């Protein structure tokens, strides 16, 4: 399906990557979110500058939205292999998780995977190459397919394709069934 329009917003920031594809019933935002860096040296940038600008962009979209990509944050303890140790690491700190939840609330988004798999653990999308983490499934779920909240009942399938090799990440997918035309965000 050809999009009506494609744009590449920068949020006024020279990092992160984003593609916005507008379709008739909804808008797809594909994003790579910068991480907080080693030693959390970029935590402030990530949670204050990037996340807030991203929230404003998503909130400005006047149609239903699907956000897909590497958001570089594991939302909850079931989304990391060792939540106690990972709490001090970029991608799972309390400020990052709080900022992520703020984005979900402010933009009225829901995590499509958790709609269908609310308690599932060991469903990771990223494994460190350095630690050969994929061998023991010591991973993180930091890649998402988020949907506008009113679309939640239309989510027919959402999963992690962990068997797909070739990267330190794996794909995620969501299947949305139903008519979102005319519905309000």
Given as residue ranges, the uncertain stretches (5+ residues, pLDDT < 50) are none
Give the SSE order as H and E letters: EEEHEHHEHEEE
Number of strands: 8
Overall, the morphology is globular
* Mean of pLDDT: 92
* First-residue to last-residue Cα separation: 22 Å
Main structural class: alpha+beta
Largest sheet: 6 strands, mixed
What oligomeric state do the depicted chains represent? single chain
Q: Which sequence of strands runs across the widest sheet?
A: 1-2-3-4-6-5
Roughly how much helix do the residues carry, as a percent range?
A: 10-25%
For the CA atoms, what is the radius of gyration?
A: 16 Å
Beta fraction? 15-25%
Count of helix runs: 4
Q: What does this protein look like?
A:
The chain is built from four helices and eight strands, in the order E-E-E-H-E-H-H-E-H-E-E-E. It has helices spanning 43-60, 83-86, 94-107, 112-116, and strands at 5-7, 17-22, 27-32, 65-70, 109-111, 143-148, 155-160, 172-176. The strands form two sheets. It has a six-stranded mixed sheet. Helix 1 links the parallel strand 3 (27-32) and strand 4. The longest helix has 18 residues, at 43-60. It is globular, with a radius of gyration of 16 Å. The mean pLDDT is 92.
